[in-house]
UniProtKB/TrEMBL annotation, chain A:
Sequence ranges assigned to domain SAP in this UniProt record: 261-295
Pathway annotation: Protein modification; protein ubiquitination
Gene Ontology MF term list: single-stranded DNA binding; ubiquitin protein ligase activity; zinc ion binding
Entry's localization field: Nucleus
Xref: InterPro entries: Rad18 (IPR039577), Rad18_fungi (IPR004580), Rad18_UBZ4 (IPR006642), SAP_dom (IPR003034), Znf_RING (IPR001841), Znf_RING/FYVE/PHD (IPR013083), Znf_RING_CS (IPR017907)
Name of the protein: Postreplication repair E3 ubiquitin-protein ligase RAD18
Organism (species): Neurospora tetrasperma (strain FGSC 2508 / ATCC MYA-4615 / P0657)
Residue ranges occupied by any UBZ4-type domain in the UniProt entry: 186-214
Record keyword Nucleus present: yes
Record note on quaternary structure: Interacts with E2 UBC2, forming a complex with ubiquitin ligase activity.
From TrEMBL, chain B:
Annotated catalytic residues: 90
Alphabetical list of InterPro entries matching this protein: Ub_conjugating_enzyme, UBC, UBQ-conjugating_AS, UBQ-conjugating_enzyme/RWD
The EC number(s) this enzyme carries: 2.3.2.23
Protein name: Ubiquitin-conjugating enzyme E2 2
SMART domains: UBCc
Family from the record: Belongs to the ubiquitin-conjugating enzyme family.
Length: 492, 166
C-alpha cells in the first residue's frame, strides 16, 4: 500500500491525539467533527431532532433521504437552525489544535515553571529557559517521560509550556509591553480598555463605552490591535465574531426556495436555471439535479460565517458536475453494481485530464507501458479476428471478468492510426477514442453476462491492473446517458 | 490536488483506520490515484467455522459517498448465505437509504452517511458469524446452513483451509 506522504493527503484526524500525552483530547475533537463528513463542523446546523451537522452535509442528506442521518427522524431543510455557539467552539479548537498537537508530540524542553513564575515574560527570561531546557533532555527523543513523573508535575509542566506557547505566539509589537495590569485597583473595560473601578464596568458598557479600543487610554498607551489585554481574549474574539455575524445579518444573502420539479415544464426549468446563471445543458434529470445542487450549495453558503463568492460557488458546482452530478454514477442509486466503480473512476480520471494544470507528459511516461500493451493487444485482436473470420473474441472475454480490457473492433482503427501517427507515447487527450461512451456501455453488458459466474482472483487482479488503461475516455454526457442505464441492483 | 467530499472523507477514514486499527480488520485505498477503490482484509471471527481464515475483499465507493454506500466484494471463495457466488456481499448496511423493495429491512439497518468503512467491516465480520437466512444471496449455502449445519461448517472449514494453502 502506498504511503500517503503528500501534504494534500495529510488530513488531520481526531486519532492524531492517540499516542500523545493528550490522548484524552481525541473525544473532544470527535465532538467537534460532523458525523457525515468527519471533518470539523462547517456552519453547524441543528435539526428538529437536536442533532448537529455541517450545513452542506445535512442539506445534502435531506435532499437524498429527508431524514436525520443519526436518528432517521423526518426533517426538512427549512427547519434547520444554526448552532453558532458550536461554530465558535469549533473555530477556537481549530485555532489551538496545531499548537497543542505540536506540543503534545514534542517532549517537554522547558523546565517545570510554575505558572506564576512564568509571569510577565521578559524576553531575556524566556531565552534563558530555552537555553537551559534542552540540557536536561535529549530533544530527539520522541517519547514523553510519562512514566518517571507524577501526573501532577506533568500537569504543571503542561500548563507552563502552554502558557509559554501562548506568549510566544501572541503578537506583540511593543517590546516593553507589559502583560500584567498596573496595580491600581482598577480594571480595564473589555472593549475600549479604559480603566475604571470594577463596579463601574457594567454601567460603562451600557452607556458610555465607545465600542473600540481607545488608543489614548489615560493610564497606559496601548498600541492599537496588537496588544489587547490577554486577560480577555476569549471575550474579545467572541465579540468580534458576533459583530461580524451582526454585520452579515444586515445584508443577508437570500436563501433560495426549493422548486417542485414535477410541476415545472422543461422550458420553465431551463428559464429558472438561466436566471440563476447556470448551464441549461443536459437531460431533464440532470437539470433538476443541477438546480437542486445549486440550491444546496447556495443555502449552505448563506449559513456560513465567511460566505464564499458566487464565483467560488460556481466552481463548486462545476466540481460537482464533473464527479457526482454525472448521470450514471449518482443516479445509479448507490452503486449497487460493480460497473459503477469503473464508471466513477473513468469520470474522475476524465476530470483530472481535463484540468488545466494537467501534466500530459508525466501522464504519457507513466502510462506509456500500458498504452503500448494496449496497442499490442489491439494488434493481437486484429490478427485473431482475421484468423477467426468473425468478430467474436472468446479468448479475451474469458480472461477478464468484466471484460473491461476487451478491445471492441470499433476501436481498433483508432488505435492503429494512433500508432502510425507517432511512435512516442500518446498523451491522454488524443488517446481518447471517439467511441468511448458506447464502448463503456458495452462493457457493462459484458459485465452483466458474466455476473452469474464466480470471478477468479486472477481475473480481478488483472482487471484492476488493466482498468487504468481504458479509463482516459472522457464521456460525452449526452450519449453517456443513453448508453449508460443505471444498473439494476443485483442484490436480492 | 483538491479533494472532493468523498475523497476527503475517505482519506479521513483511512487515517483513522491506520492510527487506530480495529481488531481483525485492515483496509485502505489500493493506490493514491483512486481513493474510491479500497482493498481490505478481514479475519474470520473466532468460534465460527471461518476462524483462522483471512479474507480479502474490495470496496468500491460511489462519487457521492457518504450519501450512498459502497459495494463490497470478497476476492476469494466464500461459502456464506449472504454472499453471492460472485463474492458480492449482501447486507442491509450496504443498501442505499430510501424505499426497501423487499420490505424486510427496517430503515434503521440500512446505509446512512454516518456509517463508515470500519462499521461496514465490523458488520461483515458479525455477518460471517451469524448469517441472516431471510434474504439469502447464496440459496445453496442458506439451505445447507439451515438444514445441515454440520455439513455447512465442514464445507466452510475446508474452504478456509484451502484458501490458506493447507
Amino acid at each position: 500500500m502506498d504511503v500517503f506522504g503528500d501534504d494534500a493527503f495529510n488530513v488531520p484526524d481526531s486519532t492524531d491525539w492517540l499516542g500523545t500525552p493528550l490522548a484524552c483530547l481525541m473525544p473532544v475533537e470527535q465532538a467537534f467533527r460532523c458525523h457525515v463528513c468527519k471533518d470539523f463542523y462547517d456552519s453547524p446546523m441543528l435539526t428538529s431532532c437536536n442533532h448537529t451537522f455541517c450545513s452542506l452535509c445535512i442539506r445534502r442528506c435531506l435532499s437524498v433521504d429527508s431524514k436525520c442521518p443519526l436518528c432517521r427522524a423526518t426533517d426538512q431543510e427549512s427547519k434547520l437552525r444554526g448552532n453558532w455557539a458550536l461554530r465558535e467552539a469549533v473555530e477556537a479548537f481549530k485555532n489551538s489544535r496545531k499548537v497543542l498537537l505540536e506540543f503534545a508530540r514534542t517532549p517537554p524542553t522547558i523546565q517545570a515553571i510554575l505558572p506564576d513564575q512564568a509571569g510577565p515574560s521578559s524576553p531575556s527570561k524566556r531565552k534563558a529557559t530555552e537555553l537551559e531546557g534542552p540540557k536536561e533532555e535529549d530533544p530527539e527523543t520522541k517519547r514523553p517521560r510519562r512514566s518517571t513523573r507524577s501526573t501532577r508535575a506533568r500537569a504543571a509542566e503542561l500548563t507552563a509550556a502552554i502558557l509559554q506557547e501562548e506568549q510566544d505566539t501572541t503578537p506583540s509589537a511593543d517590546p516593553d509591553y507589559v502583560d500584567q495590569p498596573p496595580d491600581d485597583g482598577l480594571v480595564a473595560c473589555p472593549i475600549c480598555l479604559t480603566r475604571m473601578k470594577e463596579q463601574q464596568v457594567d454601567r460603562h458598557l451600557d452607556t458610555s463605552c465607545p465600542g473600540s479600543p481607545q488608543a489614548a487610554s489615560k493610564r497606559r498607551p496601548i498600541p492599537a490591535q496588537t496588544s489587547q489585554p490577554s486577560t480577555f481574549p476569549s471575550f474579545n474574539s467572541r465579540l468580534t465574531s458576533q459583530t461580524s455575524i451582526a454585520n452579515q445579518n444586515q445584508k443577508p444573502p437570500e436563501r433560495l426556495p426549493a422548486l417542485a420539479y414535477s410541476m415545472l415544464r422543461d422550458t420553465a426549468l431551463r428559464k429558472k436555471l438561466s436566471e440563476l446563471g447556470l448551464s441549461t445543458h443536459g437531460s431533464r434529470q440532470l437539470l433538476e439535479k443541477r438546480h437542486k445542487e445549486w440550491i444546496t450549495l447556495w443555502n449552505a453558503n448563506c449559513d456560513s460565517s465567511r460566505p464564499k463568492k458566487r464565483s467560488e460557488l460556481l466552481r463548486d458546482l462545476d466540481e460537482w458536475e464533473r464527479t457526482v452530478g454525472n448521470p450514471g454514477t449518482a443516479a445509479g442509486g448507490g452503486g449497487g453494481q460493480q460497473g459503477l466503480g469503473l464508471v466513477a473512476r473513468a469520470q474522475a480520471t476524465g476530470a483530472q485530464i481535463k484540468d488545466k494544470e494537467f501534466d500530459g507528459k508525466a501522464w504519457a511516461t507513466r502510462y506509456g507501458g500500458s498504452f503500448g500493451d494496449l496497442i499490442k493487444q489491439a494488434r493481437k485482436g486484429i490478427k485473431r479476428q482475421t484468423l477467426d473470420g468473425n468478430g467474436e473474441k472468446a479468448d479475451t472475454k474469458g480472461e477478464g471478468g468484466d471484460g473491461k480490457e476487451d478491445i471492441t473492433p470499433a476501436e481498433l482503427p483508432t488505435l492503429q492510426a494512433r500508432e502510425g501517427e507517432s511512435s512516442a507515447a500518446p498523451t491522454p487527450m488524443d488517446i481518447v477514442p471517439p467511441s468511448s461512451p458506447p464502448r463503456l456501455g458495452k462493457v457493462d453488458d459484458a459485465g452483466a453476462e458474466h455476473d452469474g459466474q464466480a470471478h477468479g482472483k486472477d481475473a480481478i487482479a488483472e482487471d484492476t491492473a488493466m482498468g487504468e488503461q481504458v479509463i482516459p475516455g472522457t464521456p460525452d454526457k449526452e450519449r453517456w446517458e443513453t448508453s449508460q442505464q443505471p444498473p439494476i441492483p443485483g442484490d436480492d | 490536488m483538491s479533494l472532493n467530499v468523498a475523497q476527503r472523507r475517505l482519506l479521513q477514514e483511512y487515517r483513522a483506520l491506520t492510527n487506530n486499527p480495529p481488531e481483525g480488520i485492515t483496509a485502505g485505498p489500493i493506490s493514491e490515484d483512486d481513493l474510491l477503490h479500497w482493498e481490505c482484509l478481514i479475519q474470520g471471527p473466532e468460534g465460527t467455522p471461518f476462524e483462522g481464515g483471512v479474507f480479502p475483499a474490495e470496496l468500491k465507493f460511489p462519487n457521492d459517498y457518504p450519501h450512498m454506500p459502497p459495494t463490497m466484494k470478497f476476492l476469494g471463495d466464500i461459502f456464506h448465505p449472504n454472499v453471492y457466488p460472485s463474492g458480492l456481499v449482501c447486507i442491509s448496511i450496504l443498501h442505499p437509504p430510501g424505499d426497501d423493495p423487499n420490505h424486510y429491512e427496517t430503515a434503521s439497518e440500512r446505509w446512512s452517511p454516518i456509517q463508515s468503512v470500519e462499521k461496514i467491516l465490523l458488520s461483515v465480520m458479525s455477518m460471517l458469524a451469524e448469517p441472516n437466512d431471510e434474504s439469502p444471496a447464496n440459496v445453496e449455502a442458506a439451505k445447507m446452513w439451515r438444514e445441515k449445519r454440520s455439513e455447512y461448517e465442514a464445507r466452510v472449514k475446508a474452504s478456509v483451509r484451502a484458501s490458506l494453502g493447507l
